[in-house]
Design brief:
With about 150 residues, this protein is of the alpha+beta class. It has helices spanning about 15-30, 35-55, 105-110; strands spanning about 5-10, 65-75, 80-85, 115-120, 120-130. Helix content is about 30%, strand content about 30%. Strand 4 (about 115-120) and strand 5 (about 120-130) form a beta hairpin.
Length: about 150
């Protein structure tokens, strides 16, 4: 059975310096959960992007606003990174190219499966991260010559 470890905490959204605090908190939690380095880097990128969006583009960024960061580690192969904010005028929107905003969501979407949902009093935005594929290629057990024919 795969173990699931759940962590969450809240941050003041009206101070962008809390994004760095959220990232430090996530690094400590994920390092303690023995998450592999590649997955750790992807998760920290997503924490930064989603927390920044909450602080800049939602009611969480207003005076007294807050956002919550939720992390779940599933074994050592998967991570769930979620930010729960206090909502805003617009739904999260992925943008490419020269757009002023939305590129952070695009980055998160390239690292894992990005989703969002409205909640009572806000919204949840999350990324489910798979562990990156192994860097080594499994060798083909059948030997081939330079022209591709079997030897």
């Amino acid at each position: 059975m795969i173990s699931v470890k759940h962590f969450e905490t809240a941050f003041a959204g009206d101070d962008l310096r809390t994004v760095a605090e959220a990232r430090r908190w996530a690094r400590n939690v994920l390092t303690g959960a023995r998450v592999p380095d590649e997955l750790l880097c992807d998760a920290l990128t997503c924490v930064s992007e989603l927390a920044t969006n909450a602080a800049r583009h939602t009611a969480s960024g207003q005076p007294g606003g807050k956002y919550r960061v939720v992390l779940e580690v599933l074994g050592q192969a998967r991570a769930h990174v979620e930010v729960v904010d206090q909502g805003g005028e617009h739904a999260p929107d992925i943008q490419l190219g020269g757009a002023e905003s939305g590129r952070g969501l695009w980055i998160c979407a390239t690292l894992g499966v990005l989703q969002h949902a409205a909640t009572k009093g806000g919204r949840r935005v999350w990324v489910d991260l798979p562990h990156p594929a192994p860097s080594a290629v499994t060798p083909d057990p059948v030997a081939h010559s330079a022209d591709g024919s079997e030897r």
